[in-house]
Amino acid sequence: MRLLRYGEPGQERPGCLDSAGGIRDLSSVVDDIDSSTLSLRGLAKLRNLDVESLPKVTGKPRIGAPVVGVSKMICVGLNYTDHAAESGLEIPKWPVIFMKATTAIVGAYDDIVIPSGAEKTDWEVELGVVIGETARNVPRDKVYDHIAGYLVVNDVSERQFQFDYGGQWVKGKSCDTFGPIGPWLVTRDEVPNVSSLSMWLTVNGRSFQNGNTNSMVFDVTYLISHISRFMTLLPGDLVSTGTPAGVGLGQKPPVYLSPGDVVESGIEGLGWQRQHVIAHP
Hints:
By secondary structure, the chain is of the alpha+beta class. The protein has helices at 35-38, 40-47, 81-86, 159-164, 170-173, 220-230, and strands at 2-6, 13-17, 23-25, 73-77, 96-100, 105-106, 112-114, 121-122, 125-131, 147-154, 157-158, 179-180, 185-187, 198-203, 206-212, 238-240, 262-267, 271-279. The strands form 4 sheets. Strands 3-2-1-13-10-9-16-4-5 form a 9-stranded mixed beta sheet. A 5-stranded mixed beta sheet has the order 7-18-17-14-15, with no helix packed on it. Strands 6-12 form a two-stranded parallel ribbon. The N and C termini lie far apart (38 Å). The model has no long low-confidence stretch (mean pLDDT 96).
């Protein structure tokens, strides 16, 4: 199932895609795409729905972030061998974990706003894992029981804030609009092999990233098990699992985003995103 939220910011309604790719309204079934909907019980209820009988959504509404109430967004750095190489860094022995503020989350087609004083705004297409059941010290062979589904993430990064200002990476990752997710959440049962999904990103039509989740240093089961040792993952939490080579920082010379640019990205079976880049007002 492909779950989504549509409508203007702050007024989104729950929906899903039908067999023809049209939007159907889910508000008579669930209040929102939140922790209760993403639980095993909630998803089981949705799987029994006759989607084609739900009300059609007409027109072309804005598609918002497909999950609401994310308590934390956890990111993994240097998790692709080729990206570590282009960054001039060694492949880590343990996952590099950092946080991204949930206030950065926006819809897949919303604008990326370059913040005031930024000079090195970069892109990173990533596989996002959405938690469906509380995960605490979960063994690898039980991880899938705790996953609701998957989605596309653009882990937008301001490299000047991230590297030049000292301290942790979080401040270069957390500016408003730096977390486009979606356009929809694809439930786990529709992704038979999450460890072999092609992924891509272009800027102004120029291809920069072409990778596959089979190049991860640490796969999804390892990451969720590992992270759940150090913190409790709650339903609706989002883990962004790292990016392949081709980020702006890795170009020679580096290439960064400017107002007027258009970023498009996607992951096999999970949909695609498109963002216009604008200057801070």
